[in-house]
């Protein structure tokens, strides 16, 4: 895997084109032109669960009646253009270097960073087929931006489960039963889980409960995209 220095050298190649509109970048632009960056959506959302709201809210009505196990939720936007395209390029297109700028963008939105961040783990078989864990790369970039510690081996995956995107909400919960194990012997009281996309929240909820049982007192969620529930 390339070092942060090597990644920066990729971003600074001369005559580089915007990764979204493919027009030439200006002198001080990296990966995306300022016009595309201005199109990064930032709709208001609930700071507890991540759901889009009409106005910024510390807790939406759903959280008041049925709060999630975590405390704070930070995201870049919804699973829509251009974040959806960037996540696909990162996750399925092999463009692992996108994790660095995306992680830094996410880190700049985190107002009260946790002392440590933990990426959602991949099973070794899936990591072997993909050659990297995008959540780990994102967590490292976020940690560099926020000054946090990245604990990439704190949680392990014990079962090779079907991809969550193919399952219903109830199937997702069953799919994650005993799929993770806490490997870290000691953790800070406040940690954050880092993932690329949060849909139903089943995965991060399962990891949150695992961390709380392990003695952590507050868990936050950091992600690039939130997928609104289907209507």
Strand order of the largest sheet: 1-7-6-2-3
Count of individual beta strands:
7
Percent helix: 25-40%
Strand content: 15-25%
Largest sheet, if any? 5 strands, parallel
Report how far apart the termini are: 40 Å
Helix-and-strand structural type: alpha/beta
**Computed Rg:** 17 Å
H-E string: HHHEHHEHHEEHEEHE
Q: Taking all residues together, what is the mean pLDDT?
A: 86
Based on Cα principal axes, name the global outline: globular
Tally of helical runs: 9
Poorly predicted segments: 4-15
Could you explain how this protein is built, in words?
The structure is a single chain. The chain is of the alpha/beta class and 231 residues long. 32% of the residues lie in helices and 16% in strands. The protein has nine helices and seven strands. It has a five-stranded parallel beta sheet with strand order 1-7-6-2-3, sandwiched between helices. A two-stranded antiparallel ribbon has the order 4-5. Helix 9 (202-213) links the parallel strand 6 and strand 7 (218-226). Helix 5 (99-108) packs across helix 7 (134-146). The longest helix has 13 residues, at 134-146.
């Amino acid at each position: 895997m390339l070092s942060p220095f090597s990644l920066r050298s990729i971003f600074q190649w001369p005559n580089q084109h915007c990764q979204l509109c493919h027009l030439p970048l200006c002198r001080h632009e990296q990966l995306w032109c300022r016009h595309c960056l201005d199109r990064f959506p930032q709709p208001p959302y609930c700071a507890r669960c991540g759901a889009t709201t009409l106005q910024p809210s510390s807790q939406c009505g759903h959280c008041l009646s049925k709060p999630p196990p975590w405390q704070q939720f930070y995201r870049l936007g919804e699973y829509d253009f251009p974040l959806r395209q960037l996540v696909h390029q990162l996750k399925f297109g092999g463009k692992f270097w996108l994790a660095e700028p995306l992680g830094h963008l996410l880190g700049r939105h985190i107002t009260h960073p946790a002392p440590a961040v933990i990426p959602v783990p991949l099973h070794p078989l899936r990591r072997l087929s993909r050659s990297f864990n995008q959540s780990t790369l994102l967590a490292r970039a976020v940690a560099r931006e926020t000054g946090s510690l990245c604990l990439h081996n704190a949680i392990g995956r014990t079962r090779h489960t079907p991809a969550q995107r193919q399952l219903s909400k109830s199937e997702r919960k069953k799919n994650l039963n005993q799929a993770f194990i806490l490997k870290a012997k000691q953790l800070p009281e406040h940690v954050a889980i880092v993932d690329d996309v949060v849909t139903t929240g089943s995965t991060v909820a399962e990891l949150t409960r695992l961390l709380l049982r392990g003695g952590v007192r507050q868990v936050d969620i950091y992600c690039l995209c939130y997928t609104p529930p289907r209507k």
